[in-house]
Design a protein that fits this description.
The complex is a heterodimer of chains A (114) and B (422). With 114 residues, chain A is an alpha+beta fold. Chain A contains 3 helices and 6 strands. Chain B is mostly helical. Classes of the chains: A alpha+beta (114), B mainly alpha (422).
Chain lengths: 114, 422
Amino acid sequence: MRYALLICAEESFLSDPPGGDDARMKGYLAFQEEMAARGVLLGGERLQPMATATTVRVRHDDVVIADGPFAETKEQMAGFYLVDCKDLDEAIEVAAKIPAALYGSIEVRPIWEM
Amino acid sequence: MPRTAGRHEVADPRAAVADAFRADWGAVVAYLIRVTGDWDLAEECAQDAFAKALERWPRDGVPRTPAAWLKTTARNRAVDRIRRSKVGEAKVQEVAVTAHSAEVSDENDSGISDDRLRLMFTCCHPALAVDAQVALTLRTLAGLTTTEIARAFLVPDETMAKRLVRAKHKIRDAGIPFRVPPAHQLPDRTTAVLAVLFGLFNEGYSASGGAELVRESLSTEAIRLARLLVELMPDEPEARGLLALMLLHDARREARLDDDSQLVTLEEQNRTLWDDERITEGLSVLDSALPFHRPGPYQVQAAISSCHVTAPTFADTDWSEIAALYDALASMVPTPVVRLNRAVAISHRDGAAAGLRLVDELVAAGELPAYHLLHATRGELLRRIGAVDESAGAYRVALDLAPTDAERLFLQKKLVEAIFLL
């Protein structure tokens, strides 16, 4: 099954990660290498900070544009991975290895397969 | 269908169906979930198979192995329904093949082979909400109807039906596997299963209300499921510990409430009302866990309970042993509630002042500020050292926080006793 692993954390952790930027980068590289070797990693991206977000809605034929994310929450989405796992247990195991799981949270969402 | 299998005369085939329902419902549903992968279909076809048994058994006799008859009947029904629903021949083939190989071997990663155990672990998967875990366990394994479960948890039928549907959909859509977890996950996941069963038991055991009978049946179901778990995981001493704990608690059920449904403390309980059969069984189940030399919180709690049930009177209780067991428990699960209970045990061993010091440590640390029993315990200990005003004050706080009428009545009585130095 395909799952999206949505990486969420407080902005302060994202701009100033525990252990520093280099350690974080190394952590993500190690994670990606491991998961690519295992054959579960389909893709993933890191997102720019919340301040760069724009929200778009269409209401009564009008395109309504707002500055900021869809919901103002303490935690923001920082990036995501797309993985192909045997079942939820494997997806949870993979999610737990994402470095941000140590200070943020990872939402595991199955992909709506057409 | 094993038509040619030997049949035997049974006085009341309808009673045989009812017995089979109690004994085999969970196994039939679990088997069908494994071969079809469809929880709704599994439940419906299990229901159909039992309906067919009601029709056939009085006429044809009761099959020698009712569970096998029911599984085969339900599986055939599933194949029919899949065929009719036009999902396609491929799925029918799959079910037929899975069902065939399934009978040969249903071993899993942990070397434990039983569909009911898979079902138990899947129902208690941590990706499901706890209330959904409990409801799903009662519906699929114990065979309670949605209405029965709704009544037990005091929610409308519709709410419970939605909860069950949502849980089943999550299992399907999120890809929660139908299996006993592999060895490296087994300890954690077993803890989750034990917690669901104990939660179920407590739901049925905790303070009274109009629905006492319904709630009692929850405890009974929890005990039945714990027995099953012991049978399926014979090498797991904590499963035995949990079963022993439930039995030893349940033994005191009758004595716990008086004629007016008021709570009776352990100290004041009429010990002749305790159920000797339950106690004997509980003690022997606990004994069977000890040779594993893998102590855990349920075994320790059962051991504490065993000290209580074997004391001829409250005064004869072995408080040193109980205090030592609470030390062990507090090192395994250092929760404030365990520390509170440990304080009570120590107050009986070393005196009220010693217990009070430990309770006040909890208060100072800001633990359990809204837990009525913390304040009730303080009230009791303060009364015992003769601090009347403070005792009454603590009881008043407890009274404001008590969640049920039975507990409020009980605390009211304690407050009066504290004030009038009874």
